[in-house]
Amino acid sequence: MSDIFQKDPNTYKLLTPGPLTTSLSVREAMLVDRCTWDDDYKTMTEDIRRRLLKLAHAGDDYGVVLMQGSGTFGVESVLSSVPSKDDCVLVLVNGAYSVRQCEILERYGIAYRRLDFAWDEVPSAEKTAAFLDEHPEVTIVSMVHNETTTGIINDLGAIAAVAKPRGLAFFVDAMSSFGAVDIDVPKLGIDFIVSSANKCIQGVPGFSYIIGRRDAIEASKGNARTVSLDLYDQWRVLEKDAGKWRFTSPTHVVAAFHQALLELEAEGGIAARAARYARTNRRLRAGMAELGFTAYIDEAHQGPIITTFFYPSEDFDFKSLYAFLKAKGYVIYPGKLTDRDTFRLGNIGEIYDEDVERILAIMREYVEAHRAA
Ligand SMILES: *Cc1c(COP(=O)(O)O)cnc(C)c1O
């Protein structure tokens, strides 16, 4: 399946969590120019929506909205379209993407509260419950599932158990987990969940998708603060025209995403993909630990998608490691912590066991060369 490795010496595989390395067949799906209102294209859109619903374990009481733009556009669409002027959103913050949710709410002047946790700590159900008891104005709880900032995987079930009995709506940014971690959306009582084309479904960048409770989408009619990101209106047109998008859609990206969904199914669905990611992530961390690299997130809360490592020494030179790996066909990711020097290794996309062994061998070569120096 690793058919795309280095046909061209200038290409490299991405150890970044989206855009990520896609299969040759996903990229080949983009070689055709498609008409946005042609039936074949609309059928493709509808099939994507149906498949996403199924991956979410959702039935007819949920709907799927595809939204142009990167993942943030999807998150912003929900946050700027769903809350009414009587709502107040509680954002559980333990990384840069939950901070971004606060920035969005702030910008629109939508009422919100934030509850901060350490970035190597999952939001605790007890603290959230205590906060909600003191803040009856909160009507919506919003959180990130896998915080790609650090690689920590937050506990949706624990927070759902606090939010749902209180009758609160529940928003989840599952950008870097949907498709790779099984999420039973109705069972968790999730009202809106967002992900994008270039994460664990393994498509290319260009749109995001929102799976939401149909009655909640309908109830949001008239609440949107923008035209382009109006969730209800986008949904209304997709429904009315059976797969025609409201404005110009990224046709090549949509075709690539459709192919990526077929390949997810061929791999064995979410269970198989979850197993591959978990295995490569575990091996990568174990191999890095042998080379002296310590992970930021402890084993118990480490997600299977991306790992943050501390610099191993004061004089560690990230740029030099980056260049060394890139010359050998792999691109890595800088850290996103403000108080500690870190870098990140993602393992989603077309990354297989043999890649991990190769990456670790290159890392060993680098470490040994620098130890000798
Ligand atoms: C990728 C990602 C996003 C969206 O980022 P974009 O750059 O807009 O695609 C949002 N939340 C999380 C957790 C992510 O990993």
TrEMBL record:
Keyword Transferase: yes
Residues modified as N6-(pyridoxal phosphate)lysine: K199
Coiled-coil segments: none
Listed cofactors: pyridoxal 5'-phosphate
Reaction catalysis annotation: (2-aminoethyl)phosphonate + pyruvate = phosphonoacetaldehyde + L-alanine
Entry EC number(s): 2.6.1.37
Source species, domain of life: Bacteria
Assembly information from the UniProt record: Homodimer.
Function: Involved in phosphonate degradation.
Designated name of the protein: 2-aminoethylphosphonate--pyruvate transaminase
Organism ancestry: Bacteria, Pseudomonadati, Pseudomonadota, Betaproteobacteria, Burkholderiales
